[in-house]
Input
Amino acid sequence: MTQIDASALTVEGIRSARQAIEYCYAQGWTDGLPVVPPLPEFVDEFLAHTRRHPEEVVVRMDHLHRQCTVRQAAINAVMAGCRPEYFPVVLAALDAFHQLGTALVQSTTGQALLVVVNGPVRKQLGFNCTENIFGPGDRPNATVGRALRLVIMNALGVRPHEFDQSTHGTPAKYSCCIAENEEESPWEPLHVERGFAPETSTVTVQFIRSDLHVEHRSTQVPEEILLTIADSMSYAGGIYEAPPYNRNSGSVVVLGPEHAQIIARRGWSKQDVRQFLWEHFGKPKRELRRFGKILGLEEEPEEAFIHTAQSPEAILLVVAGAANAGVSTVCSNFAWRRATCPIEEPLPS
Amino acid sequence: MADSALFEQRGIPAAAIITSAFTRTAHLMARQYGYPDYRYAVVPHPIGNLTPAQVRQRAQEVLPQVLALLGLAEASGSAAAGS
Output
């Protein structure tokens, strides 16, 4: 923690800071919450934490003729309230976002970017991976996720009431950054599963539409937990009704450590869990008919189970949260794509 | 709208059809491509829940606007294109 000498603060200085915050509002640079005014010297502190050139383009949005350079990313990371040493995490998340493609940020489905942090950087920078994983209170999680949104709004120009066409959006659009609870997970961490060394730090980014709370506190049977999760993944409103996305969607399943440990204790691997969830992710055609969601399914038998995803790989498994209750979270996807990028090693101090 | 602007940039006449919920984005996108006064046809929103017959009806209704945008006919007073 940085030590702040309160006696060095002056009332005049604080009044001036408030004026600067109001100036940022007036420029249209905020997400509705106050931002840190991005003085060039603050931006330079962030740029000192990367080897990358300030004018290197990190994200392009060609159809809007917009892009985000390393410097623009730093400006928005300052405004989001990041500490300078978080900046390599922000850059890696933007690299992953670029790999996903940016078009979905304009979608009426109101997509948020879920950021999952893995590896030693979690502890080095203090990312929360336990209690209140999606909730408030932890600066790295809150500000890294927010930096992405400010980049989308300010550098890419996708703002509400303009190019952001979300019907409802989601609170996750302010910020949605979690870290995996690798210490209490019974399985290999996400970044190792995705081909990185355990000692490498990474971010994995995927679009999500919403997050749904999933309860099961009274069982030791893996199938009962997983059927509850699969049913929560398969709610009618989460199923897009037209091809190809009625059969080519995905899901992010954030298993609470308690659920993950109960399941793993009975010998289930991550792949077993994904396979089981995929088999039960969807609805029979006769049930979809009740909801009027049978476009493109005319040839299917009435009893056919219509899988919402094409393969188990469409389901991303993350273990995060506190090991204090049988609770998990399901994040609904529209078009699932994900990317994992390594976080640059810290520069020698 | 972006596609329409790209066609125009290549000298290919285009007519964008926008549902009434997206006229603001349409205007912003046209401006982004250097056509602040670009005119486009507007149909009532929504269209995703229409039956095939209703879609054909909408197409009939918007046809004069589309033809006018392509310079093939005069727009009637009740079907003036938006901008």
